[in-house]
Design brief:
Elements: E1 4-9, H1 11-14, H2 20-30, E2 34-39, H3 42-51, E3 58-59, E4 62-63, H4 67-91, E5 96-100, E6 107-111, E7 118-124, H5 127-134, E8 138-142, E9 144-147, E10 150-154, H6 156-166, E11 171-176, E12 182-183, E13 186-187, E14 190-192, H7 193-202, H8 209-221, E15 226-231, E16 240-243, E17 255-256
Parallel strand pairs: 1-2, 1-11, 2-8, 5-8, 7-10, 7-17, 11-15, 14-16
Antiparallel strand pairs: 3-4, 6-7, 9-10, 12-13, 15-16
Helix pairs in contact: 3-4, 6-8
Length: 257
């Protein structure tokens, strides 16, 4: 039976990616399974904005996507970052096709009030993902999406999770710069959402790790059976599986068509 997997790949992780992942992904596709990669590129986008003299604007801790930032996202995320990822995948023998949520009107969003061109995902049209993957290609997706009045820049993790849900995947992986979720000084092979929330409350999970585990918990709430956070630097590390007890599990509905 064909299995589907979505990987969320951060821009900073890509630059340090363990080459063993290419072998893993190639084997996955060659055995008849389907793969889709959603990528970020925040550090390069920040560098672009700095070079262009575009000062960051934040509201309630969230970056505002101004016209200048949106232009940078189109140039950097959908251009420089994506073409580099596609090139390396192709060189590794993994046929890849770069696209954004705009292509085929695959991902739609609505503006978040007060944040410029920031988009919240509203619905997914996954047909293009399926057309590509069933013909042996790996879609490489950046999180620019279709809005009612133009292009919107969505959160990469949120985009990846929405795509994974709409595409009915068997496994969702977040590749990051750590080997998993650490509690009591040790990386956990499995952890529940309740345990994550307790570790956040106690301060054991803190800083930049909080949005990562919150994204993974959201994926389990969407009903995805396997949700794992792994190190992009070490493909041999098993990572941490986010395990959701059945009585805790709820399904968040996302419109698809």
């Amino acid at each position: 039976m064909t299995k589907r997997k979505v990987i969320k790949l951060g821009g900073s992780v890509w630059e340090q990616l363990d080459a063993q992942y290419f072998e893993e992904w190639k084997a996955w596709v060659e055995t008849g399974n389907e793969l889709l990669i959603v990528h970020g590129g925040g550090p390069l986008l920040s560098s672009y904005c700095e070079q262009e003299g575009i000062k960051p604007v934040f509201r309630d801790g969230v970056r505002v996507t101004t016209d200048g930032v949106l232009l940078g996202a189109r140039r950097i995320l959908a251009g420089e970052v994506q073409s580099g990822i596609v090139q390396q995948l192709n060189q590794a023998g993994i046929p890849a096709v770069g696209m954004s949520g705009l292509d085929g009107a695959s991902v739609h969003g609505k503006k978040v009030k007060g944040l410029g061109a920031v988009g919240q995902i509203t619905h997914i049209h996954p047909r293009l993902f399926t057309v590509l993957s069933t013909n042996g290609y790996v879609p490489v997706v950046t999180s620019l999406v279709t809005g009612e009045q133009g292009v919107l820049n969505s959160n990469g993790d949120a985009c990846a999770i929405a795509v994974a849900k709409a595409w009915s995947v068997d496994r969702f992986e977040l590749l990051t710069d750590v080997e998993g979720v650490k509690v009591n000084g040790d990386y956990q092979s499995e952890i529940t959402s309740a345990a994550i929330e307790a570790a956040i409350a106690s301060g054991e999970i803190y800083g930049g790790m909080i949005p990562k585990v919150e994204a993974m918990m959201q994926a389990t709430q969407h009903g995805i059976s396997e949700v794992v956070i792994r190190s992009g630097k070490n493909a041999l590390a098993a990572g941490t599986r986010i395990k959701e007890e059945l009585h805790e599990c709820t399904t968040t509905h996302l419109s698809t068509y």
